[in-house]
Specification:
Layout lengths: L1 E9 L8 H16 L5 E3 L10 H5 L5 H7 L6 H13 L2 E10 L2 E9 L5 E6 L30 E3 L8 H9 L4 E6 L5 H14 L3 E5 L2 E6 L2 E7 L4 E9 L4 H34 L7 H9 L1
């Protein structure tokens, strides 16, 4: 009851404030990754503009500059990667600063192999916090899964991964796998947090972080690579959507192995009892056998 999906994570390190440079670099990495034949490719948070919001918060750049570097969803760079996805015939996913009117959101986008936008997400938890006056760094207001060629999916952006409520909400909305574009911690604690989100929800996770890639499937790490601008390939097992028919199918698979497995275990139990019976008084052997039968 799983669909195998080949995923590539790209630990792209962008150049701050330089969309043209970053877009060219993203395209090179997407093309290189596509040669490996993945079904989807994910790269990092803020990959397009370089994740430069902290320059504004710390006073080195202005909110107006942040608005100018942000990309609208109908902008030329998004259109460029829609065309590239259609050319490569694979799904492309990445983070970028999105301009919506006079506001800027930390966003992630999923483009399918036909060049269609299947999903978009605005980051909902900031390490730096949020304030209503910060139009250059708006916090997202919804948690929604979206349809993909491989079932419903959800984005979790960087700091979101620390909060189990975010991933859980997406799974309750039908997400069967999670994508994490990140530009943050590469600590052991962050790795453990990502694995925990996968195990809590029974969903595979693909993370592309600046400096590190991590792919988790069936609760275990199936691919991990340290370093910038690395391409890491792994297969995730996407679970079937919950349904009565899926449950009955899986139930039949379990019941088919139940009888042979219980018979094998019983034989092992009898072997253990026979071995132990040589070490105990005769009067206790019947009690031991009776206990095993229970």
């Amino acid at each position: 009851m799983f669909e195998s999906v080949s995923a590539a994570a790209v630990s792209l390190k962008p150049k701050k404030w330089d969309k043209s440079h970053n877009a060219d670099k993203m395209e090179r990495h997407f093309r290189e990754a596509a040669r490996l034949g993945p079904d989807l490719i994910l790269t990092t948070e803020g990959a397009l503009e370089g994740y430069c919001v902290m320059d504004v918060i710390e006073g080195r750049r202005t909110p107006e500059e942040m608005l100018r570097v942000a990309e609208p969803i109908e902008g030329p760079y998004i259109e460029r990667f829609r065309r590239l996805a259609a050319e490569l015939r694979t799904c492309l996913c990445f983070g970028f600063a999105e301009r919506v009117g006079g506001d800027v959101y930390n966003a992630a986008i999923f483009i399918d192999g036909d060049g269609e936008i299947r999903g978009k997400y605005h980051k909902t938890q900031f390490a730096e916090g949020a304030h209503p006056s910060c139009s250059f760094n708006r916090v997202g207001g919804t948690l929604r899964a979206f349809d993909t060629p491989f079932g419903r999916a959800g984005f979790v952006i960087c700091n979101d991964r620390w909060n189990p409520m975010i991933a859980r909400t997406l799974v309750l909305d039908g997400a069967r796998f999670i994508l994490i574009p990140s530009y943050g911690s590469k600590s052991r604690a962050q790795n453990e947090a990502v694995v925990a989100r996968a195990r809590e929800n029974g969903t595979p996770i693909v993370e592309a972080n600046v400096g590190m890639n991590l792919i988790v499937s069936k609760g275990e790490v199936v691919a991990y690579e340290w370093g910038n601008d690395k391409i890491t390939l792994g297969v995730i097992e996407v679970p079937a959507a919950p349904s009565a028919s899926a449950a009955r199918h899986y139930e039949r698979q379990y019941m088919a192995m139940q009888g042979p497995e219980m018979a094998r275990r019983y034989e092992e139990t009898l072997k253990r009892i026979r071995g132990e019976s040589n070490l105990i008084p005769q009067a206790s052997r019947g009690e031991l056998v009776a206990g095993a039968a229970r």
